[in-house]
Design a protein that fits this description.
With 267 residues, the protein is an alpha/beta fold. The protein has a single domain, classed as Rossmann fold (3-Layer(aba) Sandwich), CATH 3.40.50. 37% of the residues lie in helices and 15% in strands. Strands 3-4-2-1-5-6-7-8 form an 8-stranded mixed beta sheet, with helices on both faces. The longest helix is centred in the middle third of the chain and has 28 residues. It is globular.
Length: 267
């Protein structure tokens, strides 16, 4: 067990989308630092898995499901100190599909509704439910919103995703001003592509390559050269940053988006 240098012992932290990808890694880092972690994810069954961890099956697009998850977290651990809004989705789409008359990779109502439901509605109403509980119990807590370098920079095929992550950054700034008087911090973290996420699933890769009109095997060509540090990020680096922001050692950080992109994005 890693030494609990961030002193998260006794803190209860919800991680949405915490059963896979960067969410799983974040949840593991928080537990290593002594936190009680609630994994809120559509892919888990509700119930305690191991000491200090509670899985709650959650659909972040459903307010009823969100409220039930918050109730389960409070029933198990008594309070909520930190929320990590990690649940998200990315469907590469062009504004106008100029490569095919079928328009399979063009922004349509279905893609728009799905991405805004998860990336914006889910974040807004999960935060609302958690903050209501924090205010009720006079908890000076922390909201950590997982954004993306795409929220700082536009890119081909990513306008819809970029817009949802840009909204994440805007919500972060506004909520920090609304909630600061209650001692509640709100901060966003914007990672770039890291060693295990990003170009991951065949369906995603196919869609992204299509929107850029290149073969799939050329997707990552030259990407590392665009990063000043010359490499993609490590999951540990992201995990420790989130754990630090969840701790009392970051008590004066709020209302900002912290880039963790190796210098690629400096917005």
């Amino acid at each position: 067990m890693t030494q609990n240098w961030l002193e998260l012992d006794g803190k209860t932290i919800i991680v949405t989308g915490g059963n896979s990808g960067i969410g799983l890694h974040i949840a593991d880092h928080l537990r290593e630092q002594g936190a009680n972690v609630v994994v809120a994810d559509l892919s888990v069954e509700t119930g305690t898995v191991v000491y200090g961890k509670l899985n709650v099956k959650t659909d972040v697009t459903s307010i009823e499901s969100i409220n039930a998850m918050v109730d389960a977290a409070v029933e198990k651990f008594g309070k909520i100190d930190v929320l990590v809004n990690n649940a998200g989705m990315n469907m590469p789409r062009l504004l106008v599909d100029v490569y095919s008359d079928e328009r399979n990779y063009e922004i349509d109502e279905d893609a728009f509704n799905k991405m805004t439901a998860v990336n914006q509605k889910g974040m807004v109403f999960t935060t609302q439910a958690v903050v209501r509980n924090m205010l009720k119990n006079k908890i000076e807590g922390t909201i950590i919103n997982i954004s993306s370098e795409s929220g700082m920079e536009g890119s081909v095929g990513q306008s819809l995703y970029s817009a949802t992550k840009g909204a994440t950054n805007s919500y972060t700034r506004s909520w920090a001003k609304e909630l600061g008087k209650f001692g509640i911090k709100v901060v966003a973290v914007a990672p770039g592509i890291n060693e295990k996420t990003g170009l991951t699933t065949p369906a995603y890769n196919e869609a992204l390559a299509y929107t850029r009109n290149i073969p799939v095997d050329q997707l990552d060509t030259g990407y590392e050269k665009s990063i000043p540090l010359g490499r993609v990020g490590k999951l540990d680096e992201l995990g420790y940053l989130v754990a630090f922001l969840a701790s009392n050692k970051s008590a004066y950080i709020t209302g900002t988006t912290i880039n963790i992109t190796g210098g690629k994005s400096r917005g």
